[in-house]
Amino acid sequence: MTTSNESNYDLSPFILVGFPGLETAHAWIAIPLCVMYLTALLGNGAILYIIRIEPSLHEPMYLFLAMLAAIDVILATNTMPKILVLLWFGVTEMPFYGCLIQMFFIHSLSAMESTILLAMAIDRYIAICKPLRHSSILTHQRIACVALVAVARGSLFSGPLPFLIKRLPFCGSRVLSHSFCVHQDLMKLACGDTTPNVIYGLSAILFVMGMDMLLITLSYAMILRTVCRLSRRESLTAFNTCMSHVSAVLIFYVPLIGLSVVHRFGDRSSPIIHIVMGDIYLFVPPVLNPIVYGIKTNVIRKKITRLFQ
């Protein structure tokens, strides 16, 4: 039976870290991070606004893009303000339950983004391989169902994580290796049996992210087979419609894989590597996605140019 002091210690705050060894430069490091955050808000906000007011963009590809932009805005807002407060004002403490809530949103939103990327891959497959049935298959009602499935899937995937962390005793260091809370990081600080956490975390990632990556790869394999049968001009047009989505997939999954590898096999690597990989994973997709779609999609590029003019 735990004592009152032990119980209180278990719920004591976690300590977030900035950039070890660069504490004197934290105020300067925060400036580009703040610029990235504002860019993400401005870019994704512009995407959402343009898709909302332009009836010609109320098509599956752009509606999925709007979902992706909304997820990116929420994900960045869930983490970046606290990081800026840490770097500018030195506030490193994160309340126990606040850390669990942030962890839940980071993992659930990541799972939702993975689901939407899969839906966009399926949209591209139907548009290229079954163009005559595209509008009848991806109706607005089914797109709304995809959005609900993404939210439910992300929430169910991340729902057990706070409870798995809450049951663990923390009797040692409370210093995290990131400026935010993620399951792998919290789990390493526990002094109890983390086997259920390891098993569930690995199973959930394989079932959600791994399955999505496999299905996206399969979709593009089928797209490639269809495109090879088209004329050169038609092939280039088909590839051009897919390039933005392929870029978004790489922007999301490459940092995710890199961060997972660092967490599992990078115990001897520099803390800076952990921090930089985590920041890239969370902040690069929200910044780059609207830029990629703004450059590659003529309609959006013209609307954004007109909007700012």
Low-confidence parts, pLDDT < 50 over ≥5 residues? Answer: 1-9
The largest pleated sheet is described as: 2 strands, antiparallel
* Strand proportion: under 5%
**Number of DSSP strands?**
2
Distance between the termini: 67 Å
State the share of residues found in helices, binned by percent. Answer: over 70%
What's the rounded overall pLDDT mean?
Answer: 86
CATH superfamily: Rhodopsin 7-helix transmembrane proteins
CATH architecture: Up-down Bundle
- Topology as H/E string? HEHHEHHHHHHHHH
Report the C-alpha radius of gyration, rounded. 21 Å
By CATH, the topology is Rhopdopsin 7-helix transmembrane proteins
Count of individual helical segments? 12
Strand arrangement within the widest β-sheet reads: 1-2
Spatial shape: globular
Structural class: mainly alpha
Q: Quick one: CATH class?
A: Mainly Alpha
Question: How many independent structural domains?
Answer: 1
